[in-house]
Specification:
Elements: E1 3-14, E2 17-28, E3 32-36, H1 43-51, E4 58-63, H2 72-76, E5 78-81, H3 93-103, H4 109-118, H5 132-145, E6 150-154, H6 162-179, E7 182-186, H7 190-196, E8 199-204, E9 207-213, H8 214-220, E10 221-227, E11 239-245, E12 249-255, E13 266-269, H9 272-299
Parallel strand pairs: 3-7, 3-8, 5-6, 6-7
Antiparallel strand pairs: 1-2, 1-4, 8-9, 10-12, 10-13, 11-12
Helix pairs in contact: 4-5, 5-6
């Protein structure tokens, strides 16, 4: 299997702050990957490492088989759209395309011009006069016209209205189909990711909490409901991810590679959003518990 990204023991520290810790990943080629997690858990750091914009403190990372940013050829193979879909406000649409042609050896002018026409963007309009959705589409077009093998997006649609978001995601998937490009997409919008992603990575507290193919992850996660005490002794191989209890009832989110035994009558598969939220909640709860423990130890 070919991987577009491989990380082993990957870590990044800024001064005393550990932004990413012991990250181990293998992302297969040809996937649309959703990278999710709360603010401050290392998503932008991981994407910056993948683009070669920053260097790791620990461990290794390979993108398309090479060290990120190792050469001009390597840079040409990766398209990156940073947060807020940056474009140059004082440059026209045409000037963005000319700059793209000058900087990228595999630039596809025909593709770029066709997409600009489809978007009804005027070549003589400055980027600063465009709407947020139009700027996002311009940034996407410039990134795709590089003819990269991997497209990386850091929260590209966070500031867009629902209609502009839908248009952006639709055009992104058209590029995926046309170019055969792999995609890593960071976003808080779980509904958007559920519609387009076939692989997901969940980060929490600077660590990988969950990673894998969407279909496999959905198939392996269940919500179990039973009377209080009935779910205390689960069979081996069932991992409890999250649990909640009332005076009468227990509700568990669990992961199991094998089908849930028949004696557990109320067992239902989760959708992807519920799976992601369960791991994010577990990470957040572990962080709170860890902080409380540190406070207690400091007081002693």
């Amino acid at each position: 299997m070919t991987f577009v990204l491989e990380a082993e023991g990957l870590g990044k520290r800024y001064g005393r702050h550990q932004a990413l810790t012991d990250c181990n990943l293998q992302i297969p080629a040809g996937r649309v990957v959703g990278l999710v997690g709360p603010n401050g858990v290392g998503k932008s750091t991981l994407l910056g490492l993948a683009c070669g914009l920053i260097q790791p403190t620990e461990g290794t990372i390979k993108v398309l088989g090479n060290r990120p940013g190792a050469s001009a050829e390597q840079l040409a193979r990766v398209g990156f759209v940073a947060q807020d879909t940056p474009v140059y406000a004082n440059l026209t649409v045409a000037e963005h395309l000319r700059m793209g042609a000058q900087l990228n050896p595999r630039w596809d002018q025909t593709l770029a011009e066709r997409r600009i026409r489809q978007l009804n963007l005027k070549l003589d309009h400055k980027a600063g006069s465009l709407s947020g959705g139009q700027r996002a589409q311009l940034a996407l077009t410039v990134a795709a016209a590089k003819r990269p093998e991997l497209l990386i997006f850091d929260e590209p649609v966070a500031a867009l209205d629902p209609l502009a978001r839908r248009g952006f995601m639709q055009n992104l998937m058209e590029f995926v189909a046309e170019l055969g490009v792999s995609v890593i997409l960071s976003s808080h919008l779980l509904g958007d990711l559920e519609r387009v992603c076939d692989h997901v990575i969940v980060l929490g507290e600077g660590r990988v909490q969950l990673a894998g193919e969407v279909d496999d992850l959905v198939a392996e996660h269940y919500r179990l409901v039973g009377a209080l005490g009935d779910l205390d002794d689960l069979p081996a191989g069932i991992e409890v991810i999250q649990e909640g209890h009332t005076d009468r009832q227990s509700t568990l989110i669990v992961r199991s590679a094998e089908p849930i035994p028949h004696f557990i009558t109320e067992a239902a598969h989760l959708d992807l959003e519920d799976v992601i939220l369960a791991y994010m909640s577990r990470s957040a709860n572990a962080s709170v518990t860890g902080s409380a423990q540190q406070i207690r130890e400091a007081r002693q």
